Input
Amino acid sequence: MSKTVTILNLPFINTTNQQFLLALTQRIQQKQNTFIVTANPEIAVYAYDHPQFRQLIAAADYITPDGIGIIKASQIIKQPLKERITGFDTLVSLLELANQHQLKIYLLGAQKAVLQKTVVNIQKKYPHLEIVGAHDGYFTDEKAISAEIKAAQPDIVAVALGYPKQEQFIARNRQLAPAVWIGVGGSFDVLSGSVKRAPQLFQKLNLEWLYRFLSHPSRLSRFKNLPRFIYLVKHNYNK
Output
């Protein structure tokens, strides 16, 4: 787990999903405070443009290659990453782990209705884990949420505020509990059933981005970062 590949000044872990989960399992058992950033090309470009944010996430324990664009970039610089490790897949693995070992989880983010459905679905599918708190992403009093987390002492904190808010929240609050803190973007939308994840065929072909675009053409503006990401990777590699 010590091996990383640096892409646009961000150290991405170079491992498999299985090995990563083993490392997280050990850290949870040992009560090690852990900050996970799941970075796709969009986040990498944002970090490139915002040095303060780049410094913040570079201080995380793990930055995972969330997106086929990151994998392609690693091939461009001739340091190929082993696997794509997405925020959603990592969250699901953590939920399964929590269910097996009766761990405590705190959920933060999404709209209230989406969060409520997420809680119901998690409790139904993973009856042995304990949700010790859940709050939607539309809050004005962060201190109240911080106090809740501190009192609950969860083993896992899943933050679905979207970047950069989720990473900034984690950086400010991670010392409140010796937990695995992970930014999970729109994962609650999928867990709640509000948004369907790409079919297995799209996942296997690394075309989840295409499925998301076809399902929601309004997301086009978000994909505009991909050509610039590739340009920046090539430009910095060829310096």
About this structure: The chain has one domain: 4-237. Residues 4-237 form one domain.
